[in-house]
Structures are given as C-alpha cells and as structure tokens.
C-alpha cells in the first residue's frame, strides 16, 4: 500500500491494520506483509535488525503491498533521515515527552523550510520518482510515541505540534511509567486507570485533528481499539507469531500422543 493510500484509508474513516517486525529477515517481512496488513513497522529500537536487514525488509514490504514504516531507535536526526532515505513511508519515534521534542521530530522528517531533513533520498527517489523532494513532506507519516509519565502529562501540547501526523501509544512502557507495575507489563491493558489513560491520549489526538495508534497484543483487543476510534492498530509481532505457532504445534502433537488411540 502506498503512503497516500494509507492516508486515504483514514480519510475514508477506516482503520489501518499494522504488522510489526522484530526479526531481521526480508523473507519473514514478505510473509507477514502478504498476510494482508495495510502497513508493517520495522522495529529498529528493540528488534534484532541492522541497517542492511532494514533495507531488504523495506523492499520486501513494498513489493508485497504493505506500506513500510520504521520505528527508529531514538529521537535523533541520523536514524530518522536514513530510514526515510531507504524508502520508509513513515517513522514511529519512541519516548517523545514534550512539544519541543515533537517539533524536533517533525523537523527531521520534513525538508526545509518546514524542517531540517537533509536532501539525499537515495532509494526513496528511485521508488517514488523524480518528484519525491517536492511531495515528500505531504507523503511521509510521522508518529510520536506516548509512553512516559511526562509525555502523558504533556499530551495535548504534543498533539498540537504542527506537522505531526499522529500519536502512537506504547502501553507497556506507559503502564510502567504511570503505575510502576514492573512485573505486569504487556499491551492489552484492562486496569481502569490505564484504560482512562489510553482514552485520554486518544482524545488528545482527536481534538488536534491527528491520528491515534495503539500497540495491541491480540486481534481481539485490536478490534476493541478500532471500536474506540483508533486509526491504526498494531497486531502481535513476528516473534510472538512464531513463538505461538511453534508452541501450539508442539502442544498439539504431545496431546495427540497422550490420548488413547487405535492400536497400531
């Protein structure tokens, strides 16, 4: 899916289903993308992925019809600009805590005079065409992650940042930050205070006229989030899919062996 198609999905009032990749492998990226996701995010913060892997994965995602997004390691110009030059159509930036940081993020994804992105779209210009420089600012999608107590406290100011396309909720870190429940991390939060926090961030995005995204741990929770009004929901990543499938197959065989059956 092209970036403009992802934005068109939102304009039509539909939510995007986002995949998540933490294993540095282009074939795995291709398999996931062909599952029918609207977009797939390559995780350079916590994923086991280097630059070479990321480039091949972006190529595989685009060829398979999913809009390639990248979660960059941190708020810094080099990884953000490099991901975009590789051909990512959007970035997700972790740990954004203030409006000033959100403005800094926006500056790294927009060319002057709107931002400070250095011009050198090595691969992006090949796949997007010669006019990439003139259209990139309108095409590239920029999400700021809200996952700290400070970021939550300043969410309205962050959401109001000119040029920011959306807020992306990281429920695991946000739960740690707001409740201190170190050993009860996870994505699909059910605590009343966390549900209130999620809705508060969602409301801030809606008031600012930007998109809201939520990282989910299960398809059922993702469906609920779409019902709440989220514009993008992330489903379980490649690691969880692989681990769950492997465990289920092994358990099924062991269960079959343990069940009484006809004599050989």
From TrEMBL:
What's in the keyword line of the UniProt record? Lyase, Metal-binding
Annotated Gene Ontology MF terms? aldehyde-lyase activity; metal ion binding
One Gene Ontology cellular component term attached to this UniProt record is: cytoplasm
Q: Which residues form the signal peptide?
A: none
**Which PANTHER family would you find in this protein's record?**
2-KETO-3-DEOXY-L-RHAMNONATE ALDOLASE (PTHR30502), PHOSPHOENOLPYRUVATE CARBOXYLASE FAMILY PROTEIN (PTHR30502:SF0)
Q: What family does the database annotate?
A: Belongs to the HpcH/HpaI aldolase family.
Show the Pfam families listed in the entry.
Answer: HpcH_HpaI
Q: InterPro entries recorded for this chain? A: Aldolase/citrate-lyase_domain, HpcH-HpaI_aldolase, Pyrv/PenolPyrv_kinase-like_dom, Pyrv_kinase-like_dom_sf
Does the keyword field hold Flavoprotein? Answer: no
* Segments forming domain HpcH/HpaI aldolase/citrate lyase: 20-212
Q: Indicate yes or no for the key word Lyase.
A: yes
What name appears for this protein in its UniProt entry? 2,4-dihydroxyhept-2-ene-1,7-dioic acid aldolase
């Amino acid at each position: 899916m092209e970036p403009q198609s992802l934005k068109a999905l939102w304009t039509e009032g539909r939510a995007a289903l986002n995949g998540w990749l933490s294993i540095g492998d282009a074939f795995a990226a291709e398999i996931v993308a062909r599952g029918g996701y609207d977009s797939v995010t390559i995780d350079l913060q916590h994923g086991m992925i280097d630059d070479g892997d990321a480039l091949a994965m972006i190529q595989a995602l685009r060829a398979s019809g999913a809009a390639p997004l990248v979660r960059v390691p941190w708020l810094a110009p080099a990884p953000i600009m490099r991901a975009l030059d590789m051909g990512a159509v959007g970035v997700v930036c972790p740990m954004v805590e203030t409006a000033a940081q959100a403005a800094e993020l926006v500056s790294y994804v927009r060319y002057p005079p709107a931002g400070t992105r250095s011009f050198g779209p090595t691969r992006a210009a090949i796949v997007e065409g010669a006019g990439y420089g003139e259209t990139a600012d309108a095409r590239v999608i920029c999400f700021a992650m809200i996952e700290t107590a400070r970021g939550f406290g300043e969410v309205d100011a962050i959401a109001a940042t000119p040029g920011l396309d959306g807020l992306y909720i990281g429920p695991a870190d946000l739960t740690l930050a707001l409740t201190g429940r170190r050993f009860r991390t996870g994505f699909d939060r059910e605590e009343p205070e966390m549900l209130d926090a999620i809705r508060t961030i969602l409301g801030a995005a809606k008031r600012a006229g930007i998109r809201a995204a939520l990282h989910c741990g299960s398809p059922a929770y993702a469906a609920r989030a779409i019902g709440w009004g989220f514009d993008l929901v992330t489903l379980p990543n490649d690691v969880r899919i692989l681990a769950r499938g492997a465990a289920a197959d092994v358990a099924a065989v062991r269960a079959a062996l343990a069940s009484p059956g006809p004599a050989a």
